[in-house]
Amino acid sequence: MSGTTETIWKTLKSVIQIESRIELLVSTTREQQAKIESLTERVIRLEAQMDMLLIHASAPGTRRLPRQ
After folding, report:
1. Strands, DSSP E only, in the chain?
2. pLDDT tens-digit readout, 18-36
3. Do residues 62 and 56 touch, judged by C-beta distance below 8 A?
């Protein structure tokens, strides 16, 4: 009987440890997702700035370097 009880306790302990690791992974994943979203927003802003600069550079009436 003690062997069975010991096996049950080891199994429960293992399940609790796995649950703890999963909770840690969930919180880490949330942090990573927040960082990714922040970086995505920054890239979007940079793309918009670059588009505006390219539009401004190709607008008629702007001075350009002569072609060689």
Report:
1. none
2. 999 999 999 999 999 999 9
3. yes
